[in-house]
Amino acid sequence: MSDTDALPTTVLDMHAPEPVPPPRPGPGELVGGFLLAPFRARVWKEFAYLIIAFGLGCIAAAYLFVGVGGGLYASIVLIGIPVLACVLLGGRVWGRIYRVLNALLLDNPMPEPQPFAYRPGLWGWLRSAYTDRTSWRALLFLVIQCVFGLGLGYVLLMTIAVTGFIAVSPIVWALGNPTDNVDDQGVVHNSMIQFGDYYIDTWPRVLGLGALGVLGCFLLPWLIRFVCWLHGLFALWLLTPTAGDRRLIELQESRRAAVDDSTATLRRLERDLHDGTQARLVSIAMMLGRAEERLAAGGDAGELIAQARSGSKEALTELRELVRGIHPPALELGLEPALETLAARCAIPVELRVLLPVRPSPSIEAIAYFSVAELLTNVVKHAGANRIWVAVLPVDTDSLAVSVRDNGHGGALQPAEGSGETTVAGGLSGLAARARSVDGGLLVDSPAGGPTVITMVLPIAGP
Known about the structure:
alpha+beta; two-stranded antiparallel sheet; 13 helices; elongated
């Protein structure tokens, strides 16, 4: 296998293949979609959303008028300050309501913002409330809903009602008792609707008007969809986490993962020292004590001293392995020599390729080294492979890709419970968290039957 075969195409250029655009609908599909639009469940769900949004807009207007207005008025006697804080935090509840509506009726699920984090004490709580950006953005959304949801919603609902009435106007004209209207010339018109001097008083005119109403009924779904799209757009802008919020969440998760990883490393070192090196040192001390007693009695303690010496060598070897697990000495020479050491110690033949124009930062080298070490261990234990390819290649001037490929049976991706999606196996989730801690990422390609290709993308200079 050549060097380029050791990496998938998506790792060499680090760009996913361009998605194939869906085929354009033909004229028949367009006509069918237009004619079936009023009868689709989606349109009726969107119509229900508009009705609910109109009602919520009325309640929101009252909430803002009473809450904000009353809070500002009561601020004269200071009690309005906590009242305004409660009104402001109530925007989070409103945001939750609209996100649920978007998910249920518009099939537009939205991510939740960060929970409200408050400082202890009354003043701390007030400060947290008044500086909570999520609440302020939700309050701005309510203001927009009062103007947009009420104003445009009223116009749209009236348009729907008028269009529906015009569509059934022939039936109403036939069954009802049209009013006798007299024009300027004294002519009596038996009409139900008139536009200036134009009276709808004959069957051709009535049927023509009804046809326009029916055409309007087929056009209304697209108008409803557009207005609901605007509603969803405002909600997406103001009721979901901003890029800064998402970045903060990722940093918090990365910090938590880094702390968990450090804790696990310390526990492993403590266990290895306690169960291995410490026990061996105790054994050496006991042998030396017995040798001392035997020498004091005039006996021969050469065998005990030899055993203690052998044990001390083994203890030193274990300590070197532990030190190598903390920071491998080979990393002082660079990532390539360190990976060569790993490849030489692996139980499966490893083909290594490292091409780095500049040396990464020490933290990135350590992450790459320990990640490759863990991946090699996983391949040896679980993959059933007889060959491994490791490549470290630049992606661009700022990042590199560390890829480990094997010819095993695959299966690193596991089906997630309750959904048709897949998730990485438990050991790989730790690698993904380690990559995210430095603004990197993990790519996994492991179909059933293999091969498995796992690529970690890391910044060269660190986060």
